[in-house]
TrEMBL record:
Sequence similarity: Belongs to the universal stress protein A family.
All copies of domain UspA, residue ranges: 1-138
Domain of life: Archaea
Designated name of the protein: Universal stress protein
Pfam families hit by this protein: Usp
Family matches, as SUPFAM superfamilies: Adenine nucleotide alpha hydrolases-like
Amino acid sequence: MYDRILLPTDGSRAAESAVSHAVSHAERYDAELYVLHVVDETETTSIVGHGDERQQAVEARVEDSMSSIVTEASQRGVSVTDDVEVGTPHRTILSYADERDIDLVVMSTHGRSGVDRVVMGSVTERVIRTGDVPVVAVQRE
């Protein structure tokens, strides 16, 4: 039913709730799991000019988040590919899904940006509204 599953993550605790669901789906359907961290382009512009320390902190957060997901998936026998891209999160997720012919997106209902979510709508909501790939939205456990 599903051959390619996408797990977008921002490294937040809320996003962690979707990991076990995505890995379980990949395991059940013998699907490849794609893990994508989108660094919001507005975040990268705020880093510029603030020294290497801030950029290194962002890179470390991304690396920690991605490596733990890859480890969990690999330990459960799931084939996993991880990528980091810079862009507008919902657009980048949908473009990535389209380019790789993703069958299912599994993501959390909430991420790091609480105020942004209230003012402009969550990334998950935008992926659901504007995309054409099925989405499993996982609420934080």
